[in-house]
Amino acid sequence: MLMHTHEARLDALRKQLVKDGLDGFVIPISDEHMSEYVGAYAQRLEWLTGFGGSAGTAVVLANEAAIFVDGRYTLQVRDQVDGKLWSYQSVPQTSVAEWLSQNAPQGARIGYDAWLHSKGWAQGVAEALEARGATLVAVASNPLDAVWQDQPAPSLAKAVPHATEHAGKSATEKRAEVAEWLTSQGLDAAVITALDSVAWLLNIRGADVDRTPVALSFVIANADGTADLFIAPEKVTPELTAHLGNAVRVSPREAFVPALQALAGKKVAADPERAVAAVFQALEGAGAHVVAITDPVVLPKAIKNPVEQAGHRAAQARDGAAIARFLRWIEVEAPKGTVTELTAADRLQAFRAEGGLLKDLSFDTISGAGPNGAVVHYRVSEETSRTLEPNSVYLVDSGGQYVDGTTDITRTVWVGPDAPHAEVKDRFTRVLKGHIALARAVFPKGTAGSQLDSFARQYLWSAGLDYAHGTGHGVGSFLAVHEGPQRIAKASGGQAGTGQPLMPGMILSNEPGYYKTGEYGIRIENLVLVERRDISGAEGEFYGFETLTFAPIARDLIDVTLLSGEERDWLDAYHAKVRTVLAPQLSGDDLAWLDAACAPL
């Protein structure tokens, strides 16, 4: 009897673990840079299990296996991963460490790849295993790679300079600022491993990870303002070499570990959230004095300079016109019953591409019709694609990568021809009220995202409803669509970034939602920029948000009786601005549609 593909892969891995003298192995979605989105070569979890989400971990033991995901993927994991092979585990209700402390065999050797996990994770799991008399073992080579016969090679796409006209600051200036920080901290060097940090610091971009324009590389930034870049030689062009200049030494990736070991006796910064355990092991093993501290690039990267802010506005205006054209197309075509989630996603990408400036999408479009819209991080495929049925809800979360900015927008629409029913309008309006409350928020300097999260949830909470994801994430400048350290989310659950004060220049999403399992999903998402607010008589510095995203919000889904006068005024003013920004880019039927979509309530 032939085994199913994923069953055969699990069986092959178990046989390899026996060969390697291991009783279990942990498989995350990760790469050597702790990236959220990883290159094809690093999609080990998807290859083994079929799970296509962007966050999750699996544990394989001799006789059982478990997959761990958070609330965003509760439905998706059940659709994609065989429950006969894997038990589904919910994070943060449980964790890999907790599960292993109860399920690892006594005295077991549990393997992990130190290039795919953080030092803190490894310490926590090792401590949990002690209760079973078991040990966590860093493997010399990943056993999954040994059985993944057609594993793709890491990308060798060329790395390219990112012009100062878009970056707003030269790489020389950025390195000097890091050097000044190192000197102030009494440090000799900082190890920069996050791909977007490397890209920002050196003003380079790449094509090694789908949807994120980064180049696979590491940097050691030195206190004298020089830097060492570790990157595959095939990726380096004469143009890149000229851009980097004499102060950046370029070496192959294989030279990275020897370079870490050469820091023996030096005081070196490494970020415990962004640098893998193997980096700490190499430094500590060589006798370096390691200071665990946040990557010095993270905060400057998050605070967009005026050039980056202007670039974002230009990208958003361009992107909004594509969204408006798409929304009109959906309104016309979807009620015919011939549009599918896949054809809709393709049409939206085509509208974005028609401007000639789209570099890539910023993530795989979430195109969710009816019940698929209730899967928070749904990824449409040939197998799952549904038709947008007449008289149903359609949710589309999408974004574009442009050289001057990264976009991320969600719109929820009603597919006619009949009017939407009362429950959908109630839920949509509660989500909208939360969106408006956050957009209008004014807050003192020092306020963290966690303190604003309930602004967006309050109208759902009052009806006994909620959503299982954060309300806002940071966004990069022609970089990662999910960027730290800022975010807006509940403070519980150990979520990184919820304690970071919001600062002028930071860009975040504003995206409350509501999801009725098996029926529909609703989300309204705009990007916002933190800006200073001048308030007469204010005692101290106060901030608010500038909305950056411009596209109509579905008026037919709003129960106007639930809106206050101030909320109606906000929406009318928003739609007036949408028309001002988008109308010069549209004509004919598209412009007529925009006029109607932006009419005052």
Automatic annotation (TrEMBL):
Q: Which residues form the Peptidase M24 C-terminal domain?
A: 541-601
EC number of this enzyme: 3.4.11.9
Reading the lineage from the top rank, the first entry is Bacteria
Question: What are this entry's molecular-function GO terms?
Answer: metal ion binding; metalloaminopeptidase activity
Q: Where is the Creatinase N-terminal domain?
A: 9-139
Protein's UniProt keywords contain Transferase: no
Q: Does the keyword Cell cycle apply?
A: no
Which EC class does it fall in? hydrolase
GO cellular component annotations of the record? cytoplasm
Q: What Pfam families does the database record attribute to this sequence? A: Creatinase_N, Creatinase_N_2, Peptidase_M24, Peptidase_M24_C
**Family that this chain belongs to:** Belongs to the peptidase M24B family.
Output this protein's name.
Xaa-Pro aminopeptidase
Organism annotation? Novosphingobium taihuense
Q: What is the lineage of its organism?
A: Bacteria, Pseudomonadati, Pseudomonadota, Alphaproteobacteria, Sphingomonadales
